[in-house]
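#struct-help
A.M.: can someone run this one for me? Single chain, 254 residues.
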Amino acid sequence: MSQKSFASEEPSLPAAHLCFHGLIERREAERRLLDANQENCFLVRESKASSSPQKWFVLSFFGRKSGVNHFRVQHFCQHFYIGSKAFPTLDALIRFYHFSDLLRGERLQNAVAPKEPVADSAAAARRLVAVLPYAKIPDSDELSFKKGDLFVVHNDLQNGWLWCTNDRTLESGLVFAELLETVDDKCDENETHEWFHSKITKEEAVDRLAKAGVGSFLVRPSDTQAGNYSLFFHIGHSVQRFRIERRGDRYVMG
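D.P.: on it. Structure tokens below:
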């Protein structure tokens, strides 16, 4: 069989975001699976304990032979665990059990979509900023960082430790919570970078770069368009200015 014909016969893969139903109870999940009336159908939902704010994911599955089953999925240190098996993403978990048995002779086949798209609560990530620099202990999962580094928190662990990703280095690891503080929602996320200057005029920007010399640069907020920026760059004998436009989670220079 050629590679081309093999690819054409491969079943389409369901995606986690297409079957995410948010925070719903077990009975409601079972009702939605039964209403779907599809063989080996499934959905992903959130669940929480009544006595605590802790949440976790659940894979709810309606098998042709086994009936309805619910599998707890733990999100820990940027991995998703079902039992002792770890996956980097929910999509990877679903893909694995699309081609491998979840239960004996049964695999994930038909994703049950919610009536309306549901936002993943994990998308609103908790963001903290370092108030002091820190050097990690060698051969540990700790992160080294500078004062002002911005972190996205993935898990709140025991004894004051957090599992985070450093925005500057993109490294993930352990950070002690006492070294971080909450980021002001009104504060620009770029405030932590040494090249960002939110409180200087364009004339001051030009003057600073003229003194700093060729190759120096800085970024400041746009005077005319809120949410956009201006890049000032000392090139040759002059300081040039470039517009940076924010489009969603991306920056476009033009």
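A.M.: thanks! The chain has three domains: 3-121, 125-182, 195-253.
D.P.: also worth noting: The helical segments are 3-9, 26-36, 90-99, 202-212.
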